[in-house]
Design brief:
By secondary structure, the chain is mostly helical. It has one domain: N-utilizing Substance Protein B Homolog, Chain A, CATH 1.10.940.10. Helix content is 72%, strand content 0%. It is built from seven helices and no strands. Helix 1 (2-22) crosses helix 3 (49-64), helix 5 (87-103) runs antiparallel to helix 6 (108-122) and helix 5 (87-103) runs parallel beside helix 7 (127-144). The chain is globular.
Length: 145
């Protein structure tokens, strides 16, 4: 059950970041950001406290480290500049890079698997290959350190 909850939490975090990105609000003051974009009060209340904490952790951690995360995405996305990456894919990558580089509390294989699953659910039919390739290359470099 924990894995399904975490997957759902990641999906909410990606949706929030997508909404902020789409509306050019990624640089808004943290105090003005609702980490549960698109959810009503009842939906937020239905989440366990642990899930709400994890979603906040992903959203705010990703936003706080976005400059470094975006530079890493750019480093590994050799054929597509970050601004040309689909908005959903870009934010899936942001959450995944946050967990791979800054959080490191989840095994890299799980982070990559979750990002691929989110891409398959939220993006187009071929994006998961792009996301998998970028994250796998980053994982290999991180393992060398």
């Amino acid at each position: 059950m924990q894995n399904k909850a975490r997957h759902h939490d990641r999906s909410i975090a990606v949706s929030t970041l997508y909404s902020l990105d789409f509306n050019n609000l990624l640089d808004a003051p943290m105090m003005d950001i609702n980490p549960f974009q698109g959810m009503n009060d009842e939906e937020v209340a239905a989440l366990d406290e642990e899930d709400r904490v994890f979603i906040r952790f992903l959203v705010f951690g990703t936003l706080e480290n976005r400059e470094k995360i975006d530079s890493l995405i750019s480093k590994y996305s050799l054929n597509r500049p970050i601004e040309k990456i689909d908005t959903v894919d870009r934010n899936i990558l942001r959450v995944a890079f946050y967990q791979l580089v800054f959080s490191r509390d989840v095994h890299p294989a799980i982070v990559i698997d979750e990002a691929v699953k989110l891409s398959q659910e939220l993006s187009n039919d071929v994006s998961f290959k792009f996301i998998n390739g970028i994250l796998d290359a980053a994982r290999k470099d991180l393992e060398k350190r």
